[in-house]
Write a structure and sequence with these properties.
Blueprint (H helix, E strand, L loop, with lengths): L1 E10 L3 H12 L4 E6 L4 E7 L5 E7 L20 E10 L7 E8 L2 E8 L5 H4 L3 E4 L6 H4 L6 E7 L11 E3 L7 E6 L2 E4 L1
Parallel strand pairs: 1-4, 5-8, 9-10
Antiparallel strand pairs: 1-5, 2-3, 3-4, 6-7, 7-8, 9-11, 11-12
Length: 187
């Protein structure tokens, strides 16, 4: 199976809190995303350049569903890197996950969701996604000049070909480094 970086998720207690936190650090305004019916979350987005984006995700206060991914069920902490998603070809569900099909506007995707609500190692193992033949969210987002510089993953082993993804070993934090107009910012 071939894996490619798709997007990184920043968890927040609420979208306004997360949007303010990210805007203060990155200097740009997030774009509206949408709701995730059945998953109890909603999001906002930022382009990280071609074929990559940042997703701010939070529990949806208007949903009756419990947030069942990115460790958001009962989340009560400052915004933080919660996990990442890799494009997989072909898409198969790793043990402990299931494949869910979703659609919103022009976007349609299949994604693996963890049965436990969070991928292993606090989200360091990726969820997997397949956008099919339709558009990718980064195709629809304005390019605000942000670029993924580095995503550090507290793992000892994972087959990666993207040099922006760094394995730092168990016990280290998962961090995201973004290149902005003012320099690099570590989240």
């Amino acid at each position: 199976m071939s894996l490619r970086f798709d997007h990184v998720a920043i968890a927040a207690r609420s979208l306004p809190e997360g949007a303010d936190w990210l805007q203060a650090r990155l200097g740009v305004t997030l774009q509206p995303g949408g709701r995730h019916p059945g998953l109890g979350t909603h999001n906002m987005l930022l382009s990280l350049g071609p074929d990559a984006y940042l997703e701010l995700i939070a529990p949806d206060p208007d949903s009756d569903d419990r947030p069942g991914w990115f460790g958001l069920d009962g989340f009560d902490a400052p915004p933080c890197v919660a996990g990442w998603v890799a494009r997989a070809d072909p898409l198969t569900a790793p043990p402990g996950t299931r494949i869910v099909t979703a659609r919103r506007g022009d976007l349609s995707w299949r994604i693996t969701l963890p049965e436990a609500g969070q991928m292993p190692r606090g989200g360091a193992h990726p969820m997997l996604i397949d956008w099919g033949t339709g558009p990718h969210p980064s195709d629809l987002l304005p390019d605000v000049g942000l670029r993924l510089s580095r995503l550090t993953l507290p793992l000892d082993r994972l087959e990666l070909s993207d040099r922006r993804l760094m394995l730092t070993g168990a016990g280290t934090p998962m961090t995201l480094t973004v290149t902005t107009a003012g320099g690099e910012v570590v989240l």
